[in-house]
Amino acid sequence: MTTIARALGALLWLVLGAGTGAAFGQQLPNAMERFAGETQIESQPPLPTHMELRRAGSTVEASIAMPIGAFEATATERDGRITGRFSGAGGEGDLTLVIDGDRLTGNFTLGEARGTISAERTLLDAQAFFEPPEEQLDLTTAQWLEDLDHLAEILTHKHASPFHRVSRAQFESAVARARAAIPDLDGMGVAMEFRRLAALPGDGHTEVALPRAQQRLPVEFFWFEDGLKVVGISVAHRRHLGSRLVAVNNVPVAQVVEQLRAFIPAGETEWFIREGMPGLLSNPDILATAGIGNVPSVTLAVEAATGERDTIELAAAPDAAEQALLNGEMPLWRRHATQGFWTAPLADGSVYVNWRSYDQLADHAAALLHDLDATHPRRLIVDLRDNTGGDYNAGRALIDEIRRRPWLDQAGVLYVLVGRATFSAAMTNAADFKTTTTAVLVGEPAGAAPNSWQEVRHFTLPNSGLRVGVSTLHYEFLPGAAELRPDLVVPPEPADWGAELDGAVELILSQP
Asked: Hey, where are the domains in the chain?
């Protein structure tokens, strides 16, 4: 979370301006001008910005939209300069703009911060500007090579430190290999090569997003202490639930894992690898790119608890088919997947809180604190094991409220669950619990490294429309620590699937 967001506040994506859906080639209403570009505050990463101006004589009104908020401005134009003030839910300040042909530049103040605006004239309205372009994988070799050049430019010039894990020579060698391979690959294969390139900087925030048209194998694995096991599979193969993966297309699983590591950034923790590996194993296109797959079908060799071995033939499909689950149900931390924040009272008088998302966190936190103040539960168990991030300052506001309640912030009462999917802001808030409260952390190490690169800036490749994210700032939340480790280590077990409470929660309830 940057000082930009702290200055603007916790705003929703609010887009102001005309909703006409104007496209290039259409005319704008009289006296209306639109500009699209970037806003930058101090040294923070730029934000995409859309501005709509409406003139009436020397009076100018403007609507300014960004992914994190919107502002309205009233100004006066004199001698080619537009000066005035703007305001919005995130604050207010002074604004100066200059329009030179099709280019708009400006500067502003927001509190004590200073910022700049740089934009070009556009016919797109704000909604169209912020919508990602459609993906297109049916491209010519020349188009893919152009996208490769753009990707290399983004990774090497937009990332704040692109060569902190691999050298420039290593990166350029990987780009050359991709360039040589592209003429013989289909669009999905090129996209997978791009994803492998984006893993080289090493942080989990830098990536090429998988194409939306991905096909998946109807199987889900989980990496337990004794190997990768089937926790979900198509109903026809349900007898293999709980079986351990032995090989993929006759390639031993240890070799498969090593070949797939190239698609997962290596700068986070080993638990980040454990979290990401199962998704790669169910992706036939990545398996094929790694030299393992046989698109569109894959043969899995598995071993049951009895030691009996068998093979499973699975075909990829664009839509996930109904799957049978190990022991019939997800483990506690994965239940109610559509709910970003939910609570449950436990039989011993404790309260369990599954904090999966930062959406509407302030409202959820207020309701939770109201209930806690009314009931004073025996324990508060906050589960961050399925939380992949958001605004850590919003999380810190909740933690501050917990700290203001001595009866809650005390040994034996406050517990926080962490795990391999605890990433980004969730890892930051878990570290906050560890360093600023009496909370006991339980589970397994977080997937995100506590001292790494964050603050993603997004780009879109010009021909394919593939989305690229790169990190722009380095944070140190636990200086000198390679990982955020829990105080009580409780790895997930197959028995957690289908159980009312998982092993980590059961251990907490056994504590004095």
From this structure: 3-130, 219-317, 332-448+484-509
The answer to whether 36 and 50 are in contact (CB under 8 A) is yes
Model pLDDT for residues 84-97, shown as the tens digit of each residue: 999 986 688 999 99
What CA dihedral angle connects 417, 419, 425 and 428, to 10 degrees? 70
Whose CA is closest to 298, among 318, 313, 288? 313
Answer whether 430's CB lies under 8 Å from 397's CB.
Answer: no
Residues in the chain: 512
- Separation of alpha carbons 334 and 271, rounded Å: 17
Per-residue DSSP letter, 384: -
CA distance 108 to 83: 10
Residue 1: what pLDDT? 40
* Whether residue 263 has pLDDT greater than 60: yes
**CB of 73 within 8 A of CB of 64?**
yes
Q: With beta carbons less than 8 A apart as the criterion, state whether 318 and 284 touch.
A: no
* DSSP classification of residue 188: H
- What tokens does 509 get? 């309830």
Amino acid at 222: F
- Structural contact between residues 379 and 412, judged by C-beta atoms closer than 8 angstroms: yes
96: which residues sit within 8 A by CB, 6+ positions away? Answer: 81, 82, 83, 106, 107, 108
Global pTM reads: 0.82
The CATH homologous superfamily of the domain defined by 332-448+484-509: 2-enoyl-CoA Hydratase; Chain A, domain 1 (3.90.226.10)
Q: Which residues pair with 39 in a beta bridge?
A: 47, 117
Fold that domain 219-317 belongs to in CATH = Pdz3 Domain (2.30.42)
Determine the topology of domain 3-130 in CATH. Answer: Lipocalin (2.40.128)
The CA angle 456-433-396, to the nearest 5 degrees, is: 55
Rounded to 5°, the CA angle 489-492-496 comes to 130
Contact 60, 53 (CB under 8 A): yes
